[in-house]
Write a structure and sequence with these properties.
It is built from 3 helices and 23 strands. It is of the alpha/beta class. The protein is globular and about 50 Å long. This is Acetyltransferase.
Length: 214
């Protein structure tokens, strides 16, 4: 997992200036990382975020690439992973390095594996044998147990629990406080609502409402 940020490197460009950006700023500050500034979307006002200057919009990324080599996607994900996916491939195609960011208060087992562009938030746990692909959010206090497999562009929300051996297909969202039973397979582009208890495999593109046993 050599792509994880663990010490001071070049300044990080944050792409997306909403609520998730604010949370990622807190993680980067706690790790003593230097933040270059914020890149906003097309329709967002060019306002600073938590004191960090807006450096432009998505259309300005080619020019910003001449000044900065590293970027973190700070657009959130609930209903659809498409905006984060599009940014991931755009930034990678422009030659940005997309390091994974891990909060100092999180724990990622040395026996786990992780790709590029992930953010592991405060007090999250990723245990031995787990694998995390690219461009995922592992949110605060969530648990990814041993031997889980999470494909690219997923969001495991606050306090969600993935028991051992769970697999999650690309682009899926596991809502806050949801519990996924061991060895369950979650398909691609699935939305699991807050507080759901999932005991059976879920097919691609399914929507599971929160506070429900399935």
């Amino acid at each position: 997992m050599d792509n994880i940020i663990s010490e001071i490197f070049a300044p990080i460009l944050l792409v997306g200036g909403g609520g998730h950006c604010r949370a990622v700023i807190d993680v980067l500050e706690s790790a003593n990382m230097e933040i270059a500034g914020i890149v906003h979307g097309l329709e967002c006002p060019l306002n600073p975020v938590l004191g960090y200057s807006a450096l432009g919009r998505d259309a300005d990324l080619p020019e910003l690439r001449l000044r900065f080599s590293r970027a973190v996607i700070t657009v959130g994900q609930i209903k659809s992973s498409t905006p984060r996916q599009n940014l991931f491939f755009k930034l990678r195609g422009m030659g940005f390095e997309l390091p994974s960011v891990v909060s100092p208060s999180a724990h990622v087992s040395r026996h786990a594996s992780m790709g590029a562009g992930n953010v592991v938030m405060h007090m999250a746990l990723i245990n031995a044998g787990a694998s995390l692909a690219d461009n995922c959010i592992i949110n605060s206090k969530s648990l990814v147990e041993h031997d889980c497999s999470i494909a690219s562009h997923c969001h495991i929300a606050i306090g969600a629990i993935l028991c051992g051996g769970v697999s999650v297909g690309s682009g899926s969202f596991i809502g806050a406080g949801a519990v996924i039973r061991q060895n369950v397979r979650i398909g691609k582009n699935v939305i699991i609502g807050c507080g759901a208890n999932v005991h059976a495999d879920i097919p691609d593109n399914a929507i599971i409402r929160g506070k429900k046993d399935v």
